[in-house]
Amino acid sequence: MDYSKTPTVVPFGGFDANADAVALRTAMKGFGTDEQAIIDILCARSNSQRQEIIAAFLKEYGRDLIKDLKSELGGKFEDVIIGLMLPEVDFLCQELHKSMKGLGTDEEALIEIICPRTNDEMKQIVAKYEDMYNRPLAQHICSEVSGDFARLLTLIVTGCRDPAGQTNPDLAKEHAEKLFNAGAAKMGTDEEVFNKIMAHDSFAQLRLVFEEYKNLTGKTIEQALKSELGGDLLNAMLAIVECVQSPPGFFAKRLHKAMEGMGTNDSTLIRIIVSRCEIDLGAIKAEYERLYDKTLLSAVKSECSGDYKRALCAIIGNA
């Protein structure tokens, strides 16, 4: 489904990197920190403008702005601001690494970051990940997860997906039949066939495959996947389906899940809001309100507090 990629953070008009650098230094020097000034500046600048501010800060004061921010801020508020200061690809690499380091693995984070990516996006992440951590991303993934789930993620990470927008109606029918023959038409499931098609076909092509599958079987692809697969592999496949059908819906559902029930999954909340704010957070906001009959802004206000809440709300925007 085509959709309007509406950002909530856009380049600031009348931008002056030197003036912002001076204002940030003023907000942090002496006793106490003017957190609101930091929010007003950094949450209202594009990422490329923030990179200019970092350079201007270094030139003017001989200081590392990110290090200064880390020394002055703390907790989840710090996580939001530092996330904003990193180039997007660096931020996503950091989040991937965080999801796999230490004991246990955050499979949902891996799915959320990897499954929506195009080949071009994935290529940038793969190159930057090895540069940042001196380890191939695919190798790290395979050391943390296993089986068909690992194989699916590895196929996406290694750039097997066809170019965006590429479609072939005849091939869509063929792939729909292959999915049927690999699942519902036989005893057991041939996960390799599901992996190959879901990781290789472009999202536009997969949209055709899913339509042909329903024409062929009378069932949706979601119904087919749920009857044939389970665990993390199923979750990853369903994430791909959601991204094919509606990327804003995929992220809106992730945001809602992060805030429902007892406690909030702040890592997910921060990651999506920070990484999508210059891409399609406006569309995600609209889809969130459509799905849950309340605004994303009101949900964040009810779940978060203090400077952390104010920073997220500034990024989301009141409109």
Account of the protein in words:
With 319 residues, the protein is mostly helical. Helix content is 71%, strand content 0%. The protein has helices at 17-28, 35-42, 47-61, 65-72, 75-85, 88-100, 107-114, 119-133, 137-144, 147-157, 169-182, 191-200, 203-217, 221-228, 231-245, 247-259, 266-276, 281-292, 296-303, 306-316. α5 (75-85) packs parallel to α20 (306-316) and α6 (88-100) packs antiparallel against α7 (107-114). The longest helix has 15 residues, at 47-61. The chain is elongated, with a radius of gyration of 21 Å. The two termini are 24 Å apart. The mean pLDDT is 95.
Structure described in brief:
This protein has 20 helices and no strands. With 319 residues, the chain is mainly α.
Which structural class best describes the helix and strand composition? mainly alpha
As a percent range, the share of strand residues is: under 5%
Helical fraction: over 70%
Mean pLDDT: 95
How do the SSEs run, as a string of H and E?
A: HHHHHHHHHHHHHHHHHHHH
- Distance, first to last CA: 24 Å
Shape: elongated
Low-confidence stretches: none
| Rg, nearest Å | 21 Å
Number of strands: 0
Q: Sheet bearing the most strands, described?
A: none
Number of helices: 20
